[in-house]
Each structure stands twice: as C-alpha cells, then as structure tokens.
C-alpha cells in the first residue's frame, strides 16, 4: 500500500486517540528503558515516550510515515533512530526493554501466520524480562461497530467519507476512505483502501504463550477493567 497521501492526513484522522493515556499505561509498568515502537506511523507515541526519557527507536513499514515522523522528531529536537521494517520481520534487532505495537496496527496483519511470527520476532527482540505492549480492535468492534458505517467528517481543511464492509476472512473488514484535502482555494480528492482483521482474546493469549510470553494483563478501552462483550479496544501486556 502506498501511504504517501495518507501519511499527510494521518494525524487529523487520529486526533481523538489519547496517546498520553497509552504512555501512562506503559509507565505503570516501566519508568525507563529502551523501547522499540513498531508501526510508529507519524511518530506521536515515539515522541511522547522520548520526552519522558525512554530510549526510543521508531519503525514503520511506510517510508512516507517515517518521513513525517522524522520531521516531528527534528522539530522537537529528539534523537530518535528510525527503521523501515515490517513488524513480522525484526531480524537482527535485540536487547530492548519493551516493544510496542500501538493503535490497532497489529490488525493490519491479515494472516494468522503473520501475527504468530510477529509475536515470535518481538520475543526475540526483547531482553529477558522485557515487556510487550499492544492493542487490537475487539471482535465486537470489527463485526458490529464498524458495520454502522459510513462515517463522515467535515473539517475546514479536510473532509472524508469512511465506508466499511465485511472482509472475506472471519472478523475482518475492508475500509474504503475518500478524502478531500484543501489545496489553496480548492479541495483535492484521493482514496485509500485499508484491510484489518482481528482475533479473539483467547486466541491472542494462546499465540503469545506459544511464542514464550507470560500474559500479565488484558484490559479494555484505556481502563484497568477486563474486556467484556462490548469492549472495543483490547490491551495486552506480556512479559518475556
């Protein structure tokens, strides 16, 4: 997928995400150390962690996302290395105190084998005793909430229509997004298609255990509460 245009509007699309709460969740477990932020996008979470003193390495598969992230880091005078890589191929990376895959990025892996390999690769990249933090869309959100589309946003410089339909695999969706971005006195239109898939909490726990992790907590929706049938975002903390 070409994320060129999408990278430019990504922060507007994600403006309601409480990144600060994500960092607080991590800080409840570890106050310092080295962190590999996988699928970092435009680097918002990486920036916040670095500002709190974590030794952050940011990575993403998209060169366009990393370009935006690097600009962010430079403007904030932060020395954050960036790597272009896929979250299921971390060969040669090791010795991190923590690895993060934030804001449902793991749901972009459509195949079971990719998720399992990602868990194995993350395990290998961590120090003994290191932590793995990630979140995913719940089955309820994929199967029910997203089916309430279309969603429409109309801003001064950006508008978009977001239509979602079921994918071919269980608990998967296809997002079709049409953006209108202000260019001077006109709006330029472009389109994006994104596919996501999730699995049940028990399946994620099983795959984490198979990779060698101890699952320490499973919570929901930026709270300390366990997931219920209508939770939308599931948070996992696992330890090597």
UniProtKB/TrEMBL annotation:
Q: Which Pfam families match?
A: Methyltransf_25 (PF13649)
Gene Ontology BP, a term: methylation
- Using the record's annotation, list all stretches that form the Methyltransferase domain: 35-130
Is Repeat a UniProt keyword of this protein? no
In alphabetical order, the GO MF annotations are: methyltransferase activity
Quote the InterPro entries the UniProt record gives: Methyltransf_25 (IPR041698), SAM-dependent_MTases_sf (IPR029063)
The UniProt keyword set, sorted, is: Methyltransferase, Transferase
Keyword Mitochondrion present in the record's keywords: the answer is no
The record's section on CDD domains has: AdoMet_MTases
Taxonomically, the superkingdom here is Bacteria
Its recorded name reads Methyltransferase family protein
